[in-house]
């Protein structure tokens, strides 16, 4: 009996999407990554000809070597890129969570820039029988620079397929209760180990989100508002008063005005004003990366201590916190409603194939 090529086990898949990372902490690898990243018109909204000259004539020759040194400072022995390590771990543990729940759901990871590429991941899922796809970005707060760009790439790849899967997208989950609970658990775990800040003495809790040019907000990007809401909900869940926590924005680049307040200047200001202890957390980054480990855990710490601060405590990102994996599962289930989460048995598939053959013989 010949198997009908259109009759195969039908599977539901989840594709986690993250931004990306160089393959190695070397100038060559970093240059290749930065070129792909900074060539995306969703990321840099400057006329292409002007930006091409700036990127290739100034930024890549200068920043590649400097950035490579920064990546080298946070590279994990035997594990490589922290972002890649923790993102892969999240995909693995999410798949195991579905398996523990009695479901058979394909789970994979793709990076918007670098490897594994979106095309590579989607082709792999297709080869395993994917017929339904949930795209779940590891960006809790929506931005055109991250979420939309990742969706663009999914659409580009699927646009080349003749037989496309059913498709659902998770736009954001910045105020999802399970996500907020996972953030709270991560902070409280740190405070259980290191003691809670004494807010009566002027200690502060800073939540640092990745920054964007202010013009993105003015053009309608909801990212700024969603970051503020995440910060408010996390602050409330921790039982903090508005003055005890501060939402800031990091990673400013160029001379244009970006979302304020800036993380670096806020840390310096608080230290100068007599803040002795600062706990800092990056709720918008589900996995530790260059921006959290080097910029916040290292550079910002130096700034705080240099300007009079005494006790600087970086709280790691969610990474593989079990409550975060539980939150990812909850978010996925919310969007998978109505889709089968199992695999058709071989006997049922054989029966379908026999019925299809019978219909074909009847037609002939």
From TrEMBL:
<comment type="function">
    <text>Catalyzes the ferrous insertion into protoporphyrin IX.</text>
</comment>
<keyword id="KW-0627">Porphyrin biosynthesis</keyword>
<keyword id="KW-0479">Metal-binding</keyword>
<feature type="binding site">
    <location>
        <position position="210"/>
    </location>
    <ligand>
        <name>Fe(2+)</name>
    </ligand>
</feature>
<dbReference type="InterPro" id="IPR033659">
    <property type="entry name" value="Ferrochelatase_N"/>
</dbReference>
<dbReference type="Pfam" id="PF00762">
    <property type="entry name" value="Ferrochelatase"/>
</dbReference>
<keyword id="KW-0408">Iron</keyword>
<keyword id="KW-0350">Heme biosynthesis</keyword>
<keyword id="KW-0456">Lyase</keyword>
<dbReference type="GO" id="GO:0046872">
    <property type="term" value="F:metal ion binding"/>
</dbReference>
<dbReference type="InterPro" id="IPR033644">
    <property type="entry name" value="Ferrochelatase_C"/>
</dbReference>
<dbReference type="GO" id="GO:0006783">
    <property type="term" value="P:heme biosynthetic process"/>
</dbReference>
<dbReference type="InterPro" id="IPR001015">
    <property type="entry name" value="Ferrochelatase"/>
</dbReference>
<protein>
    <recommendedName>
        <fullName>Ferrochelatase</fullName>
        <ecNumber>4.98.1.1</ecNumber>
    </recommendedName>
</protein>
<dbReference type="GO" id="GO:0004325">
    <property type="term" value="F:ferrochelatase activity"/>
</dbReference>
<comment type="similarity">
    <text>Belongs to the ferrochelatase family.</text>
</comment>
<dbReference type="GO" id="GO:0005737">
    <property type="term" value="C:cytoplasm"/>
</dbReference>
<comment type="pathway">
    <text>Porphyrin-containing compound metabolism; protoheme biosynthesis; protoheme from protoporphyrin-IX: step 1/1.</text>
</comment>
<keyword id="KW-0963">Cytoplasm</keyword>
<feature type="binding site">
    <location>
        <position position="291"/>
    </location>
    <ligand>
        <name>Fe(2+)</name>
    </ligand>
</feature>
